[in-house]
Amino acid sequence: MKKEANDELVPTMEAHGSLTAQAVAPTNPNSAGTVAGNAAASPFGNLPGPVPDLVCYSHLRWNFVFQRPQHLMTRFTRHLRVFYVEEPHWDAAPGGAWLEVQTPRPNLWVVVPHLPDNLKRDEQERTIGGLLTSFFAENRIERFIGWYYTPMALGFSSHLEPLVTVYDCMDELSAFRGAPPILLDRETELFGKADLVFTGGQSLFEAKRERHRSVYAFPSSIEGAHFAQARQAQPDPEDQAGIPHPRMGFYGVLDERFDIELLRGLAAARPDWHLVMIGPVVKIHPDELPKAPNIHYLGMKSYDELPRYLAGWDVALLLFALNESTRFISPTKTPEYLAAGKPVVSTPIRDVVRPYGDAGLVHIAASAAEFEAAAVKALAQTGDAHWRGQVDAFLQQNSWDITWTRMATLIAESIGSTLKNNAR
What is the pTM of this model? Predict the structure, then answer.
């Protein structure tokens, strides 16, 4: 990101996860009418006028870990044009700011500003705002849903006028390492502009519900069939095949939310257990991670690869530290691990304790000693058909399709109300 840490545009999450495709010149997307046929079967199909577009402002790279933004936006692309605006790269020549545009799937345009690295925040925001104004005009983005993952994007987008504004608050970004001090002020501003606020978990809902008239909790969902593949025997990936059992695994971003000392203590206490860590290292130095013969760092894997790795684990782990950055998290991997049929041991993250721990679906442990004892119980649970039946019954009403439909219905209703009021 920027040279001046306190002047960052957004809290970056790009390390090890930035876009890797070659830069391409901005393209001219199809007109909005090209997706009208798909939209007819969606909550947007009965709205008067052209089908709206969706512009998503995100602090997460599209080609980073496949998670909530990707799950939801891919579903929107079945019905609408989606423009996914990322945080900038700081590699442009002085005075040579430009937009990189990629089309990784139909009806999705990933838009990445490239800026010189010598701009102050207000200059950054003016520059990106000007680039987006031109881009919107060139691509006829006129009726659109404004979807925010980061309030910091208001600095370059507030002059653009969406039909409705959605704030999908998936994390408490102000608690993340490197968050700019102005972020909380920007969030207050976004609450004032938003028509709808969605939260990534129950704890975030409880923290935000008094700040807006229309706040809805949408905890982490799953693609059950995708992760259920791990319940079938299949060949181990090459880099995991030689790791002995029992294997206990974690996948996710290894950052300030990851409990390094718990991993260190567990590895030391049980050298006969092999701990598989999958994911990019972000915002911490790799040297901070514990090294031991029974800890195996396999790096970042694609979403499609995860079931193959999960299939070879005996127990799945949620190794989250208890700190400000994890106070409100609702880990997507909790239901994913369970859908894969794996016993799970987690630190007492509030949105894991409620509901998974309370329902007896996940083992909860606070200390290294408790974690070891819980892992022993989890190992014995591997063939427990009764537990797996409880898991399946619990997960039956949890899917990204259900979540998307509920969100899209609320948005369509809000657009309909806005259009009706404007017509008066």
Answer: 0.84
Please report, as a single letter, which amino acid is at residue 109.
W
Pairing state between β 53-57 and 144-148: parallel
What order of strands is seen across the sheet that includes strand 247-251?
295-299, 274-278, 247-251, 315-318, 344-346, 363-364
Structural domains for the chain: 5-221+400-423 (3.40.50.2000), 224-395 (3.40.50.2000)
Alpha-carbon span 408 to 400, nearest angstrom: 12
Q: What is the pLDDT of residues 301-326, one digit of tens each?
A: 999 999 999 999 999 999 999 988 88
DSSP, residue by residue, 232-289? S--PPPHHHHTPPSSEEEEES-BSTTB-HHHHHHHHHH-TTSEEEEES-B-SS-GGGS
CA angle 219, 224, 273 (to 5 degrees): 90
By C-alpha distance, which of 37, 28, 26 is closest to 140?
28
Q: Which residues contact 302 (CB under 8 A, 6 or more apart)?
A: 66
Find, among 129, 55, 54, the residue nearest to 88 by Cα.
129
